[in-house]
Amino acid sequence: MPDIFTPDFSVNRKIRENQKNQKGVVLWFTGLSAAGKTSIANALETLLAKNNNHSYILDGDVIRKGLSSDLSFDKKSREENLRRIRHVAEMFCDAGIITLVTFISPFQSDREKARLLLKSSYVEIYVNTSLEIAEKRDPKGLYKKARNGEIKNFTGIDSPYETPQYSELVLDSSNKSVSECATQVFNYMLQKKYILKVT
């Protein structure tokens, strides 16, 4: 854009990462409502905290109450919601923070935009749960409301969820516990050297 310039700051991402002894990375959890995205991210953040890692969860419901409180749930609004969050995630990543994004993000095109923006710092995690199991869980009662016509454009009911074509990690949250899924992600991060194991 014209007349907009990026300042040349003295403290850069590498300095921040070295300070924290970790890599800035965005773990993008995608999946149906009630798949377990937030629960797994919460359990993972507990593991990271015990390992002296600096992380933060960018949760869909929290963002909707603040940064995106002006948006509805139609496709255009969802795209704008995800545009905002991927740029916020990029800034967190530049700060050297392990950023856990827990958004349904149902459309492949939006996830691809996040991947293009974040490049090698983007780790897509598909929390795979069937619609049947997600509906049985339904902790917020949203599926019931959607079935009754009280909520429009609800993913899995009257709005599609596009299964990821490729994800760095797939978590089978239908058959694995929250703890098992969180440990799977933690071990992946160790393997990829985003973090080091504190002894």
Protein traits:
199 residues, alpha/beta, Rossmann fold, 43% helix, 14% strand
Can you walk me through this structure?
- Strands 2-3-1-4-5 form a five-stranded parallel beta sheet, sandwiched between helices.
- The chain is built from eight helices and five strands; from the N terminus they run H-E-H-E-H-H-E-H-E-H-H-E-H.
- The N and C termini lie far apart (47 Å).
- The chain has 199 residues and is α/β, with parallel strands linked by helices.
- Helices cover 43% and strands 14% of the residues.
- The mean pLDDT is 94.
- It has one domain: Rossmann fold (3-Layer(aba) Sandwich), CATH 3.40.50.300.
* β-sheet strand percentage: 5-15%
Main sheet: strand order: 2-3-1-4-5
Number of helices: 8
How many discrete domains? 1
In whole angstroms, the N-to-C terminal distance is: 47 Å
Radius of gyration from the alpha-carbon trace, in angstroms? 17 Å
Shape: globular
Strand segment tally = 5
The amount of helix comes to 40-55%
Judging by the overall fold, what is the CATH architecture?
Answer: 3-Layer(aba) Sandwich
The average pLDDT score comes to 94
List segments where confidence is low: pLDDT < 50 over at least 5 consecutive residues.
none
N-to-C SSE string, H for helix and E for strand: HEHEHHEHEHHEH
Instruction: Briefly note the structural class of the backbone.
Output: alpha/beta
CATH topology: Rossmann fold
The CATH superfamily turns out to be P-loop containing nucleotide triphosphate hydrolases
| Broad CATH class | Alpha Beta
The largest pleated sheet is described as: 5 strands, parallel
